Amino acid sequence: MGRTYILKRTVETFVTLFLVLSFSFFLFHILPGDPVRTLVRGPNITREIMDKYMVLFGLDKPLHVQFYKYITETFKGNLGVSFMFTPRTVSEILLSRLYNTLILLVPATIGSILLGMLLGVISSWKRGTKTDLTLQIFSILFWSMPTFWLGMIFIVFFGRTFSTGGMVTAGLVHPDFLSYLNDLFRHMFLPSLTLMLIMHGQYFLVMRSQLTDVSTENFMLTAKAKGLTSYRILRHHGVPNAMLPMITLISLNLAFLVAGFITIETVFSWPGLGELIYKAILFRDYPILQGTMLLLAGVMLGTSFIADILYAYLDPRIRYG
Amino acid sequence: MSPTSTKVIAAVIAVVIIIAAIIGIYYISMPPPTPTPTPTPTPTPTPPPGPATITGKVTDVKTGAAVSGATVTANGYRATTGPDGVYSLSVKVGKYTLTATIEGYKTETASVDASGEKTYTVPVSLMPVPRGTFRVGWTTEINSLNPSTCWSTEGVLVIDAMFDTLYTMSREFEAIPDLVKSEKISADFLTWDLELVQDAMWSDGAKLDADSVIYNFEVLLKTMPPMMTGYLEFIDSIEKTGDYSIRINMKYAMPASLVKILLAEDFVFLREKELGPLDKVELDDVTNYAPEETKITNGAFKMIEWKKGEYISLGANENYRKGSPNIEKLVFIRYANEEAMVEALLAGELDMTYERIPVTMVKLIQSKIGFGVAVQKSHWLNNIIFNMHDWNEYIRPALLQPEVRKAFAYCMDYEKIIDLVWLGYAEANPSIICNAGRFAKYHNKELEYFPFNVTKAKEILKENGWVDTNGNGWRDKELTYTIKPLALDEEGNIQIDDEGRLVRVPEDQWITKTERFELDFEVWIETSYAMELKCFEVMKPSLNEAGINIRVQLLEGSTLYDRIWGPDPPYALSDYDIIGWGWDIEEDPTYIMDWLSAYQIGGWSDSCYHEPEFNLLHLAEKREIDEDKRIEIIKEMQAMVYRDLPYIIMCWPDQVQGYNIEKFEGYVNMPLKGIANEYTFEEVRLIG
Lengths: 321, 688
Prior knowledge:
The complex is a heterodimer of chains A (321) and B (688).
Chain A: H1 3-30, H2 35-39, H3 47-56, H4 63-75, H5 90-125, H6 130-144, H7 147-158, H8 177-215, H9 218-225, H10 230-260, H11 262-267, H12 273-283, H13 286-314
Helix pairs in contact in A: 1-13, 5-6, 5-8, 5-10, 5-13, 6-8, 7-8, 8-10, 9-10, 10-13, 12-13
Chain B: H1 3-29, E1 52-60, E2 71-74, E3 77-80, E4 86-91, E5 94-101, E6 108-114, E7 119-121, E8 124-126, E9 133-138, H2 153-162, E10 167-169, E11 175-177, E12 180-185, E13 191-196, H3 210-223, E14 235-242, E15 245-250, H4 256-263, H5 272-275, H6 283-287, H7 291-294, E16 301-307, E17 311-316, E18 329-334, H8 338-346, E19 352-353, H9 362-367, E20 371-376, E21 380-386, H10 402-410, H11 414-421, E22 426-427, H12 454-463, E23 476-483, E24 511-518, E25 520-526, H13 530-546, E26 549-555, H14 557-565, E27 578-584, H15 589-596, H16 612-623, H17 627-644, E28 647-653, E29 655-660, E30 664-665, H18 678-683, E31 685-686
Parallel strand pairs in B: 1-7, 1-8, 9-18, 9-19, 25-26, 25-27
Antiparallel strand pairs in B: 1-4, 2-3, 2-5, 5-6, 10-11, 12-13, 13-15, 14-15, 16-17, 17-18, 20-29, 21-27, 21-28, 22-28, 23-24, 30-31
């Protein structure tokens, strides 16, 4: 893989990011709705007060002036101040929410990938049997369930055993770190389980499909003929060759997952990024929306870039100029 | 794995399950333990004093402060601690078990071997009994705990728990003195001399005196934070007249009750120690001030922690001038939606819900042991809003016809709406002023709902020429109407003349047209007002029968506001037919009157109602000092709205809140607010 290629991909990534940010800026600003009127409601709020807030939010300036300021400040690392949570900065809010989402995202994603891959491998190796049929029904059933519905079912049945709101028990002073972890686990168990069960289906199907294709290859027959165990055949010959599309799927999903947690975070009152995005859209909090777009675009482009590199590493047949 | 091992494992699992089931059935079938009655103690006679003395000091183990009034006993001998916490017992020589008790503390015992004729010193430290943490759930995310930037009612509730004000709302929802001890208002209502209480303190022990109050108000008057403008603009100046007395000079005379309500929102939260000298303070200093970081408060509760997006934790202010709250901690927890909040209540994670819970969940809560539902009349109305503007191309001539709006009123079965949609948890009241709490005196009791009568609706429409000419089921009519554009001032604002009329462009610029209009309307409802959608679904068959069609649409909030008020105010876009939503009429009738007046066109007027007489009466009621005259003006304004029907009031949904009745007692159910109020937070206590 040449240095020229890496440099070219890096430049392309930054140019794409700039275009995405520019497009999203104008897209958010042409949405119908006025953030000041949506946020500032109540008695004694006159037209003059609303005009003061327009100035405070920088919305009194022409759009091109706002855009210029947005781009220059973003490159300086200043994402601005949130409308909804003024005077808190967008960076501070996004970081705290991202942290909350990652706590949920990481175990759920890892769990769903591992579960999906494991079940996909078993299903493919046992294809045509009752095991294969059972696993297919199980995975597709969960994948087709609405996330919020499964979450609400878990709340109804397990809400007394596991906590269903927030990240930790509100107001509780944890005597030690272990106690904090225990409390956190009780709160994140149900949302993580919900996500894991819902998400594993796509990994299952892709792994099963890919492994089924790979199983028909000559080298797999050769491996069997050599007398290798099923485990060794799958581990050293089957799964590595079936992994390439999985890499693409995982990298594509990562960026969507961060934003796609809206329903699960809403059902379980988890104060994460997905819920923040939903609120920011409702209240037309442009700085939050723009900051989130920057984050998601960055993650998407970054993971895509890493996936490209990984491809070449995993498959020596692939060479870039 | 061989078939044999599989069978063995399956057998073992089956045996374990059967044993667990047997144990479970055994425990379930056991009767619950019955408490044994406590025998009535027989009083023992006090023994005579002896040559030995047992003495000591009883203190609070947490604070080290002396505990006064504690009862100390030792084998029949008895003493009570004085203000210094000291007790003294004259006893015979011997061995004793000393016991110290007082309400609010755990009982402590100590062994004393008084074997000689001398003094034995036995200090006792008492552990306070835990008073519990009271947890309140809501669905709003607080943006700020700074009164100058907070825009949610829930945020103000938290601020209210931490900071005092000159006046506050009583349990009957009247404004009463808080930091003010006594008041003297001049005859012209322009000068208010206020004596302050002398025992108010900041949480760091500093006195909250006239200097504190003056500084706070002077900073706010100087910087005039946008969110507080409405609560400050009537004040001309404030001055110190004594260590604990101030004088507020008003810009103009206003009803005393209204002034007190406004002052009840002016929290005393700023100090020179944190903000700096007055002449150096700017608006940013005020709006950036974070009480959650400085933790300087003066109310019943103090800030412990604010985990943004999750919860706010407050602790009882043990030194509060009105007495420490009965609970140790007050925690406000945010939930993403009302259903999750109710589930959390039933799971024991909450003790009370702040907001109106879905009425469909009331039976669920009531069916669970240990939980109750508090119902109270609210000051929130549900209404139908007609577009009454006539100054641009978005005019709705059909809705400007009084008979059309009246037909809607006759087609509304309010009893069915209250029963079917609100399950009975709403009040039938056709007026724009509620009939509860302090509003009852302003409420025009002569107004009654238009009777539900579809035949009458048909008659009115037919009499006025509305007939179905094209056979599609909806009545239509040819109307001649005039668009009368507004004459705006230099800054683009609307103008209202001295007679309360909107100022228009010259008549030669008016546009008169004749067109045929059908009674076919779009009704827009904001997505968060799902109950209003159901109300219109109940009405629709009656309207259809009368020859009126409605097409109900849910619109996202911001988009809806744009269609009503437009992206380019000031005189409002007003491109809509009918809206269904609700208003919280706040603490005083003047607010709802404001929203119906022409002065709020381009601001918060959602009907663009512009009746000149109403506008003049609104100005009059805002300035009328005589309370009785003000009441009459407000009643007349209600009658006007009832006559002209820019709004049709569907009902006033009750304030319905769920709470735990097994763990806590002492909830205060305030008119219009329900149990979620500062009095509940101060008085609620653990049972037992």
